[in-house]
Amino acid sequence: MIALEAGATDIKGCVLGPDGVPRNGERWFTRPERGPDAVLETVLTCAATLAERCRPTAAGVILPGTVDETSGRAVHAPALGWRDLPVRDWMAEHLDLPVAVGHDGRTAGLAEARAGAGQDCEDFLFVSVGDGIGSAVVLTGRVPTTRYGAEELGHTEVRPGGDPCHCGGRGCLETVASSAAVTRRYARATGWRGIGAREVYHRADAGDPAALAICEEAMVALADVLAAAIGRYAPERLVVGGELAEAGASLLAPLREALVSRLGSPAVPGLRLARFGETAGRVGAALLARDLQDVRTGR
Ligand SMILES: [Zn+2]
């Protein structure tokens, strides 16, 4: 299988064998300012490059924004500059392979539900904090679906009139708590450019006051949005993934504290780091591709 994940900053791809372990990881820059056609061309080229290496039997691709998984269309993906593109059909034609298309947060949640930190749990809320903030609700151990409407927690307004967001809104959770926002805010506060979110998290751990203030504000905003989602879905567990999870467990304690102060201790579900970290989306994309292949071969 080949699996691709297209985001605002980069397009990540890998090959997954039957053991489900990602290999031959590659990364290309998205540069959405080039326009939607150029981004699509890059995605197609990346997929073809990976396909040449492993003779895949199917491919999976995950996208941010609003995705129609049934028809395989990107309905609206502002991070890529796409609106209403038949991604599945174009990729399938380009690669001459069956292709499955999924939403990034939901597909990462699927990977955690089937083989990760949600495997032994019936109901969980998954949130992935990386370049964007993706989320998924898994109820009664089923595959997460669009029905529950929790995929776009990242675009919940947390700072009215705040920084502009690529979705067209202002002050969305993504503008405060995503890796891109943490990087940008640290540069703005200190004048030091090029310090990635992971390094900012480490600096906060080490007591850097600017990093601490930015991380604390990110955790507070995240807790506000998650508290509302927990109140709505009452999940048994909260699984935290993406770059934030890769930064380590030290960020879970302040997040838990912030949730307890909003909901009270008994209402706060168990917090768990995602098993697949920032590769969850690609593992999930490969699962979608495998499901598609199983359906086709009648397995
Ligand atoms: Zn937004």
SSE arrangement:
Blueprint: E1 2-6, E2 10-16, E3 22-29, H1 36-54, E4 59-63, E5 66-68, E6 73-77, E7 82-85, H2 87-95, E8 99-103, H3 104-115, E9 124-129, E10 133-138, H4 174-177, H5 179-190, H6 197-205, H7 209-233, E11 237-241, H8 242-246, H9 252-263, E12 270-273, H10 280-297
Parallel strand pairs: 1-4, 4-8, 9-11, 11-12
Antiparallel strand pairs: 1-2, 2-3, 5-6, 6-7, 9-10
Bound molecules: zinc ion (ZN).
Model description:
There is one protein chain. This protein is an alpha/beta fold and 299 residues long. It has 2 domains: 2-107 and 279-297, Nucleotidyltransferase, domain 5 (2-Layer Sandwich), CATH 3.30.420; 119-274, ATPase, nucleotide binding domain (Nucleotidyltransferase, domain 5, 2-Layer Sandwich), CATH 3.30.420.40. It is built from 10 helices and 12 strands. It has a 5-stranded mixed β-sheet with strand order 3-2-1-4-8, sandwiched between helices. Helix 3 (104-115) packs across helix 10, helix 5 packs antiparallel against helix 7 and helix 7 packs across helix 9 (252-263). It is globular and about 50 Å long. Residues 155, 165, 167, 169, 172, 174 line the site of zinc ion. The site of zinc ion has 6 residues, from loops.
What's the CATH class label of the largest domain?
A: Alpha Beta
Number of DSSP-assigned strands = 12
What does the average pLDDT come to? 89
Biggest β-sheet description: 5 strands, mixed
Defining key terms:
globular; five-stranded mixed sheet; 299 residues; alpha/beta; single chain; Nucleotidyltransferase, domain 5; four-stranded mixed sheet; binds zinc ion
